[in-house]
Design goal:
By secondary structure, the chain is of the alpha/beta class. The chain folds into two domains: about 200 residues, Rossmann fold (3-Layer(aba) Sandwich), CATH 3.40.50.2000; about 150 residues, Glycogen Phosphorylase B (Rossmann fold, 3-Layer(aba) Sandwich), CATH 3.40.50. The protein is about 40% helix and about 15% strand. The protein is built from 16 helices and 13 strands. A seven-stranded parallel β-sheet has the order 3-2-1-4-5-6-7. A six-stranded parallel β-sheet has the order 10-9-8-11-12-13, sandwiched between helices. Helix 12 links the parallel strand 11 and strand 12. It is globular, with a radius of gyration of 22 Å.
Length: about 400
């Protein structure tokens, strides 16, 4: 039986990446020996989260040791020089990879991964995928896979909060060392290939990760959005602004926002500014998220960027029409089903909210359910098995 290892920053916390990782790990654990190496604290372990207690999965908790102040300074100095001079060669990238991931950190991770005697190791998110590439020579006879959960634009765009355009060439040099890189959309795969035609990631969509609840009845007059309250990403600030414009001419519809995070006070301040406390409600995350989908009439995705917005599939599995920013991945998933607005344009979003109140809801609901069926877990787990057995 092959031994599969997922390396992830966190598995015992709330988030879309954690949930998808858990679902894929659970699916593979039926046929493989699966381990998750996580940087969570051991006391955070809750295998009931995402149903991880339903199958046998091994867990290992890893943390990097401290390094000396001098070594930190030296590594930071070289990394700064690399970024300042915008070195383009592979040799510079390899030096940067080692300086930003010094031996005091590399070696303990290598020891941890060697100890598991894995056949395949999957690094989740770009930084961990890149670190796997850096230590690849020290893990002979192990297939290393990077699984990227953010879009090309989110990672490397000029306004990226993650990696940024100045590191693009470096990361792609490193990704090319891996045995395979998995991305979440055809658009991302195309953009990587256009940037470097010797790099061709594999596309595997994320599956529907929850058991749908009751279908929406389509008569509640409630918009819904779900997501972490992180800076800029989900565009919930845009949605509140747009709902304010929409509400100037509409007295009936309400908006439910489900999520938690550092931006919550900012959202509450916006709601108070527009005196919409009775029409916009913020709710915490819950394991019974299905009831919010069931109680909604239209789902709204106002994100400025996305890897693959799984909430769209979840919403459609409950029969919900979708208002969404015109991100390439959204168009890829929804095609002409989506009700699109220009990314970041609150005036246009307000108009699309109004349009959504006049659609042929039963027809849209039927189409939504048909699209959601394409993302069922079975075929997507089979794609991962094919990748593992390749």
């Amino acid at each position: 039986m092959k031994r599969i290892c997922f390396v992830v920053d966190s598995i015992f916390s709330i988030g879309g990446v954690q949930r998808v990782t858990a679902v894929i790990a659970k699916g593979l654990a039926k046929d493989y020996d699966v381990t998750i190496v996580t940087f969570d604290k051991p006391m955070s372990k809750d295998t009931s989260l995402y149903g991880l207690d339903e199958v046998k999965i091994n867990y290992r908790f890893f943390s990097y040791p401290s390094i000396s102040s001098f070594k930190k300074w030296f590594c930071k100095l070289y990394s700064g020089v690399y970024l300042k001079l915008k070195l383009k060669g592979k040799w510079g990238s390899d030096l940067y990879a080692r300086s930003s991931f010094p031996s005091e950190l590399r070696n303990p991770l290598v020891s941890e991964l060697k100890d598991g005697q894995y056949d395949i190791i999957i690094g989740i998110h770009a930084p961990l995928a890149s670190r796997l590439a850096t230590i690849k020579p020290l893990l002979p006879n192990v297939r290393l896979i990077g699984w990227l959960h953010n879009s090309f634009e989110a990672l490397f765009g000029d306004t990226s909060l993650y990696i940024g355009s100045e590191r693009k060439r470096h990361y792609i040099y490193q990704f090319k060392k891996l045995d395979q890189v998995v991305v979440l959309s055809k658009d991302d795969a195309t953009r990587y290939y256009k940037y470097d035609n010797s790099f061709a990631p594999k596309v595997v969509y994320n599956p529907l990760t929850l058991q749908p609840g009751e279908l929406s009845t389509g008569n509640t007059k409630r918009f819904l959005t779900i997501g972490r309250f992180t800076h800029l990403h989900k565009g919930i600030d845009l949605l509140i602004e747009a709902f304010h414009l929409f509400a100037l001419n509409n007295n009936d519809w309400a908006l439910d926002i489900v999520g938690e995070g550092v931006e919550e006070n900012n959202y509450k301040a916006l709601i108070q500014k527009y005196h919409l406390e009775e029409r916009i409600k913020i709710h915490p995350f819950t394991n019974c998220i299905q009831r919010y989908y069931t109680n909604a009439q239209v789902y709204v995705l106002s994100s400025r960027w996305e890897g693959m917005p799984l909430v769209l599939v979840e919403a459609m599995s409950h029969g919900l029409p979708i208002v969404t920013s015109n991100l390439p991945v959204c168009k890829e998933i929804l095609s002409d089903f989506g009700i699109y607005f220009k990314n970041g344009d609150t005036n246009e979003l307000a108009k699309r909210l109004e349009d959504a109140t006049h659609i042929d809801w039963p027809k849209k609901s039927k189409q939504a359910i048909e699209i959601a069926h394409r993302f069922e877990i079975g075929p997507i787990i089979q794609q991962w098995k094919d990748l593992i057995e390749k």
